[in-house]
């Protein structure tokens, strides 16, 4: 099971204790997956989704929020493998639509998709915002495996719907971004801290612990890799510099002669030839009297400058 599926499985099991929070989560599912249509027998409210968890969660929320006693059809589609829930009782349907802030005409219920921004009154309370975001992610969200990268997104049908999600996230100090993908508006998070906050806000606490564990391991591994790469680069730089120094000193020995060098430079040149791979601090300790790192660097630079003059 993917990490995204694990998160949805946990959110599916979470049922809010308060009726207004259940309505807020129901509103999210209906606004992302619901539609109102008309058949030969009358109007119907339908929730269609590829993931059966969404339809089952909506059915549970509707039962608890509206004390449904009427028969509701929940089944799997023969084509496409999706699931749908259909409510044909117009009185119940009107009550549900009224509760989630969807207008309907007297004598003729609003027809078409419900995929638009939800009535702000539905998500006025902080707990209802949490519930709405939970329903939105369950209906249209996904999150990548934290072992591989950080990316969480909610795919919206229109920009107004996406902008409302961004505003709700900002109420919890979560900075989200928007992008258009074909005919959809996508709200996404790319920072690990933001995704962790989202999981906390939607109360996916088990998934949050798994995410944070993976995040710590990944960041420690990245830190170790950065340090190793830095040390490797420093070693390569030291080896390159030492090779150049040895090359210049050999040139001075063969074409200039060590006997012409000042005693301090001659001693430095002989020490470098004897210890070609030694770092500057260790090289300075071999001199008599010992010289610090800056002193060794100064003498080697003098030798290189002299070699350049001899070379050209």
Mind explaining what this structure looks like?
A hairpin with a 2-residue loop joins strand 1 and strand 2 (42-49). The protein has eleven helices and nine strands. By secondary structure, it is of the alpha+beta class. The chain has two domains: 3-203, Homing endonucleases (Endonuclease I-creI), CATH 3.10.28; 237-311, no CATH class. It has a five-stranded antiparallel β-sheet. A four-stranded antiparallel β-sheet has the order 6-7-9-8. The two termini are 69 Å apart. The model has no long low-confidence stretch (mean pLDDT 86). It has helices spanning 3-13, 19-33, 52-66, 90-99, 126-140, 159-170, 192-201, 205-255, 263-274, 280-285, 293-311; strands spanning 34-39, 42-49, 73-76, 83-87, 112-113, 141-143, 152-156, 177-181, 184-189.
Task: Give a quick rundown of the structure.
The protein is α+β, with helices and mostly antiparallel strands. 56% of the residues lie in helices and 14% in strands.
Describe how the helices and strands are arranged.
Elements: H1 3-13, H2 19-33, E1 34-39, E2 42-49, H3 52-66, E3 73-76, E4 83-87, H4 90-99, E5 112-113, H5 126-140, E6 141-143, E7 152-156, H6 159-170, E8 177-181, E9 184-189, H7 192-201, H8 205-255, H9 263-274, H10 280-285, H11 293-311
Antiparallel strand pairs: 1-2, 1-5, 2-4, 3-4, 6-7, 7-9, 8-9
Which properties best describe this structure?
14% strand; 9 strands; 56% helix; 2 domains; 5-stranded antiparallel beta sheet; rod-shaped; 4-stranded antiparallel beta sheet
